[in-house]
Structures are given as C-alpha cells and as structure tokens.
Write the structure tokens for this entry.
Amino acid sequence: MIDSGELKKGIIIELEGKLYQVIDYQHIKMGRGSAQVRLKLRDIRSGHNVERSFQASEKFARARLDYHTMQYLYSDGDLHYFMDAESFEQMPLTTNQLGDALKYIKDGMSLEVLSHKGEVVGVEMPITVELRVIETGPGFKGDTATAGNKPAKLETGITIQVPLFINTGDVVKVDTRTGDYLERVS
C-alpha cells in the first residue's frame, strides 16, 4: 500500500480490480474540509482515461509488476514487435499498450516491458532518449516572439520545440516524461 503523498506520474495502481496508470496528480487543500487528491488515471487494459478524487489520507494498492528487458524490432499497423533479450522470443504489443511511449521508441531500442500476472500491460521508458532531428527550419535571431525556439521534427515523427542553434541532422536529448528538449548531443 502506498500513501497519496507517494503517488507520482507513471505509477501503476490497482483500484476496484482494475489497473490504472497515474497520468496526472494534484493535491488540493480545501478551506475548511480535509485535503483531497485529484488523479487523472488511464485504464491499462481498455486505454480510456478517468478522473477521480480521493481523501488525502487514503492508501492505494500498488500493482505488482514483472520487468523483462526487450528490444524493439518493428511496427506492422497497430502491432509493435519486441524481442526478449534472453530467449529471442518475439512479442507484439498494441498501440494502446504502449501509449505515449510510442512517440520516443526507435528501432533497436531496449526497454523494460511490464507484465501483471502474466499479462503485458505496457513499457517503462528511460527518462531521456537521444533522437535525431530530421527536419527543422533555419533559426534567425530575433525572428520569433518566443524565447528563441523553433519546431523540429524528430526521427520518431514527433515535433518538439528546440533552440535556434539546432540544425537538421543534430542529435538531441529529450525528456520522455514531458517531451521537452534537454540538450544537444552532437
């Protein structure tokens, strides 16, 4: 059991026999009432999101998960194939099971695949990934209203904001929790 104060983004909990991943977490202190916790949760199996409020004193059952290191191989429509690093067995995961992690996965990447009671429920991403910029416009100083950022399309297909000095072909480090640019690698 974990306290509401120990909840954070990405934790998987068990509620009413279902597995939920915490997407967002807010601690709310009412004027006269007791504090509450407002959670935005994603149902692991069905993929839909729900919002629930709980008393701050409530405890939650943390889901017991097994971790297996697997390598991403390729995608075929809605299925994304991974290979077990030890047994070389291939296993498909759906787009629903991968969720936001799909934005940062590239060929050959090793990830921790999570399973609960023998059923695969998702993957655990590293905190940062290094991705190549495949398309970005030129950056002219003083040409933007923002703090010197421009959009850049990365090799996985997502677009993030990067500083003006980043060029096509550069490799950048991206935070997988927020999708923010961290630094240029090369």
Observations:
- The mean pLDDT is 85.
- Residues 128-184 form a domain with the OB fold (Dihydrolipoamide Acetyltransferase, E2P) fold (CATH 2.40.50.140).
- The first helix runs from residue 95 to 98.
- Residues 4 and 56 are 6 Å apart (CA to CA).
